[in-house]
Amino acid sequence: MHERDDGRPIQWRYGKLRLLDQTLLPHQERWVSCSSVAEVAEAIRSMRVRGAPAIGLAAAAGMAIATRQALERGDDPRAELEAAAITLRATRPTAVNLHWAVEQSIRAAQGLTQAREITGRLEGLVSGLIDQQDVQDRAMAEFGAGLWSRPARVLTHCNTGALATGGYGTALGVIRTAHARGNVTLVYADESRPRLQGARLTAWEMSRYGIPYRILPDSAASALMARGLVDLVIVGADRIAANGDVANKIGTYQVAIAASYHDVPFYVAAPCSTIDPATPSGAGIPIEERDQEEVLQVGNERLAPGAAECVNLAFDVTPARLITAIVTDRGVLRPPYDVAIARLFTPEVRQGSAERSSGAASSAPTSGSGRGAACCTPPLAVSSVIEAPTNNSGAVPRNDG
Questions:
Q1: H or E element: which one contains 45?
Q2: pLDDT of residue 358
Q3: In the predicted model, is pLDDT for residue 321 greater than 50?
Q4: In the prediction, which pLDDT does 8 show?
Q5: d(Cα 210, Cα 197) in Å, to the nearest integer?
Q6: d(Cα 183, Cα 175) in Å, to the nearest integer?
Q7: How far apart are CA 194 and CA 292, in angstroms?
Q8: Rounded to an integer, what distance in angstroms lies between the CA atom of residue 128 and that of residue 123?
Q9: Can you give the pTM of this predicted structure?
């Protein structure tokens, strides 16, 4: 089985999942163990594990745990898989990686009848996906860090590092690589209310990586851009529609509007498994609404009057026209995004990427139908809309979208 000994927040061994509890960071580092589907579902729902890629990995582990339990009880593993799929899909509706991982698990079990064989296949799938996520994250970081070639002040929203992926990180992975090259002087981390993923988690990660940062109130991003203090924005994504609309942590849309107004490049970094070609536009992305108490109180301290109510949307949708480029593990997508994304999912592109595979993450499927299934592969060759970034001028590119 698979075990992480390098500090990454997701560990998988002998059919059990261990997670670094993100609800307790930055003040307490405590691991929780999940040995049932119900425990995995609770960890996802309560955001002990969060970030689209990371909850996808957790969901895959939950599916494998279901088959292990069926094996131990002598039950039908296929029935257990179906029940686990229903439970896990209901936890977080917006993040497509969760649904993708569940579908990958169901597909991996197809054609198998023996409980032991199904269990072995799915447990191997989890190990492969964990390895694969790190490979994809690092490929994405290389592509993204090539978007600018001089020291820059970068603004980011929510948390998109190793905590969010179980690997190297998406947008924060890009920042890490760019910082190692000397091209990040300061990161502005939006606090990302109401769960404060920026103030708690991004700040915690950047402190560990030695990256200079300042926490920023969510309402202050536009003011900093107006003063010329932000050179570029890079964020993650929970789901990307076929036309390039991006669902991400609530507050992302207003940052994108400010960036467009102030001519600041706005980049999105996400693995191909976050792209949902079955959803035509952002209007079709389900938006999770969470418990009002996340806004009305902090810890056990209530901030609002007793009868107060609120709207607590967990995500918003940024229109594709506000996005300068989308960085994936297979290249940088440029507008028109509907064309770039459609090409990403063509059979010819899937075959080309499969042929480039060197065998990494061989336990994870790399082809097949279904959202995101085509994109679990090493980086893709360059095309007119899917490109390897080149910027030799030394300038931070301005927003041309």
A1: helix 37-45
A2: 35
A3: yes
A4: 80
A5: 18
A6: 9
A7: 10
A8: 9
A9: 0.86
Higher pLDDT, 300 or 177: 177
Cα 346 from chain centroid (whole Å):
23
DSSP alpha helix (H) spans, 52-149? 52-73, 77-89, 96-109, 115-145
What are 357's two structure tokens?
Answer: 């595979």
Instruction: Name which of 15-19, 313-317, 384-388 the model is least confident about.
Output: 384-388
Question: Is 238 known to be catalytic?
Answer: yes
Q: Is 183 in contact with 175 (CB distance < 8 Å)?
A: no
Positive or negative, the Cα torsion across 87, 341, 249, 173?
positive
Beta bridge partners of residue 290, listed in sequence order: none
Q: What is the mean pLDDT of the chain?
A: 87
First-to-final CA distance of the chain: 46
Length of the chain equals 401
7 by Cβ neighbours in 10 Å (0-12 / 13-18 / 19+) ranks as exposed
> Which residue is catalytic, options 134, 190, 231, 238?
238
Note the pLDDT tens digit of each residue in 129-144.
999 999 999 999 999 9
Q: Dump strand ranges (E) for 253-298.
A: 266-269, 275-276, 297-298
For residue 401, pLDDT over 70 is answered with: no
Question: Exposed, middle or buried by CB within 10 Å (0-12, 13-18, 19+), for 113?
Answer: exposed
Residue whose pair of structure tokens reads 């061989």 in the numeric block: 362
| Among the listed residues 95, 117, 203, the one whose alpha carbon sits nearest the alpha carbon of residue 156 | 203
Helix (H, G, I), strand (E, B) or coil at 401: coil
Q: Which residues in 68-85 are b (16+ Cβ under 10 Å) and which e? A: bbbbeeeeebbebbeebb
